[in-house]
Design goal:
It contains 8 helices and 13 strands. With 288 residues, the protein is α+β, with helices and mostly antiparallel strands. A hairpin with a 5-residue loop joins strand 7 and strand 8. The longest helix has 19 residues.
């Protein structure tokens, strides 16, 4: 019920809650017949069937159904991997955080807008993504357009023959260590407490007393530690540019730590554990 209420607050009026797979399928079929394509938040374990069984029926009704899997299982669990391989669009771990749900809904809305703007049904957004990127890989085009790489490549070859697309050097990019998606975002955080609540600023080091703190703590050029005035840079003090200060723990660091988060399955991983994929690169030719 909490998810139902939260979706209502986001502006979604037509929200239905079903307690069994059978009831959910009945409601899905009703909505599909009325030319609606509902977003399905699907718990993996239902009283009468599991998510894989439900998805099989959903995709028979609507092959492009958007299913968001909810489960308490770990993201590397075989049941989760299997569900993603068989069509689950995104994965939300339990307990579900409303901010994560909000982000997932935004992703779906953004991608729907992209597909609504595409030039024609058969192109599946390929030209749109070529236009909105200076360079893009075959792997990313295939995932964004939800088509097999071979099909996308055939269309790109047509565009290349028409002189509309250039084949560039191959592109190497990070893919998810769990599901293989290249829809990856970066997450920056404090290396000490792992909070993302930090800001960029300039540090001042006062040579006489050794105080190092952010520049706005030196009110009227007075050191906050010894209360002496700092006057000449290089003699009394030095400025350390482009430092980061954690708001939560006060730690100061030259660079934030970073992880990568998969937009598709919510897997969080380090660069060391990332998978690298290489595919052909393409760019849209500009017209003078």
């Amino acid at each position: 019920m909490l998810i139902h209420d939260f979706l209502k607050k986001l502006g979604y009026e037509n929200v239905h809650t079903c307690n069994t797979g059978k009831a959910g399928m009945k409601k899905f079929e009703e909505l599909a017949k009325s030319d609606h394509l509902p977003i399905v938040l699907l718990d993996y374990n239902l009283p009468d069937m599991n998510a894989s069984e439900v998805m099989l029926q959903l995709f028979n009704v609507k092959s492009d159904a958007k299913v968001i899997l909810e489960t308490a299982e770990e993201k590397d669990d075989e049941t989760v991997k299997d569900a993603l391989r068989h069509g689950a669009y995104l994965y939300l771990p339990k307990p579900i955080r409303f901010e994560n749900l909000k982000n997932v809904i935004k992703i779906l809305e953004d991608e729907k807008k992209v597909l609504d703007d595409q030039p024609s049904e058969e192109q599946h957004g390929v030209e749109y993504f070529l236009k909105t990127n200076t360079r893009i890989s075959l792997k990313r085009l295939a995932e964004y357009s939800k088509k097999q790489e071979a099909d996308v490549m055939a269309f790109l070859k047509e565009l290349e023959d028409q002189g509309r697309v250039s084949r560039i050097e191959s592109i190497k990019e990070i893919s998810c260590s769990n599901c293989g998606s290249v829809r990856i975002s970066q997450y920056f955080f404090c290396p000490s407490c792992h909070s993302s609540n930090f800001k960029q600023g300039k540090l001042i080091e006062h040579f006489k007393c050794g105080n190092v703190s952010i520049d706005d703590t030196y009110k009227d050029s007075i050191c906050p530690k010894c209360r002496k005035e700092i006057k000449i840079i290089g003699v009394d003090y030095r400025a350390i540019e482009n430092y980061y200060i954690c708001i939560d723990c006060g730690e100061k660091f030259p660079e934030p730590a970073q992880d990568y988060i998969c937009v598709k399955c919510n897997n969080r991983f380090t660069l060391e554990h990332a998978h690298w994929v290489t595919s052909e690169g393409f760019a849209l030719k500009t017209t003078n």
